[in-house]
Amino acid sequence: MKYKNANDVLPKELISEIQKHINGEILYIPRPRVARKKWGETSGYRLYLIERNKEIKRKFKAGCSIQQLAIEYSLSYDSIRKIVYVKE
């Protein structure tokens, strides 16, 4: 996160009002909820996991055992079990 000086981006009146509550400290201003992205959306990892889980389910339905899938994907037996039995 890049640091910005309030004097460069905020009106003086607003800075004066903020200084009544917090003076000379670092203040984090979060994005509005509508602008937030879900975990993994920016990096693409969320989509990767969705596709990986679809592939695991496909292989399980085709006859691969949970143990085989756990070894192939380097996941625990319980993780694979959760993936293949979850309702969509």
Task: Provide a descriptive summary of the structure in words.
The chain is mainly alpha-helical and 88 residues long. The protein has one domain. It is 52% helix and 0% strand. The protein contains 5 helices and no strands. The protein has helices at 6-9, 12-19, 45-61, 66-73, 77-85. Helix 3 (45-61) crosses helix 5. The chain is rod-shaped. The model has no long low-confidence stretch (mean pLDDT 90).
Descriptive keywords:
about 90 residues; mainly alpha; 5 helices
| Percent in helix | 40-55%
Sheet-strand content, in percent, reads under 5%
Q: Uncertain segments of ≥5 residues (pLDDT<50)?
A: none
Mean pLDDT: 90
Elements, N to C (H/E): HHHHH
Total domains, how many?
1
Number of strands: 0
**SS summary, helix count:** 5
Describe the largest sheet: none
End-to-end C-alpha gap: 36 Å
Give the overall shape, derived from the CA principal axes: rod-shaped
Structural class: mainly alpha
Q: What gyration radius follows from the Cα positions, in whole Å?
A: 24 Å
Annotate the secondary structure layout.
Blueprint: H1 6-9, H2 12-19, H3 45-61, H4 66-73, H5 77-85
Short structural summary:
The protein is mainly alpha-helical. The chain is 52% helix and 0% strand. It contains five helices and no strands.
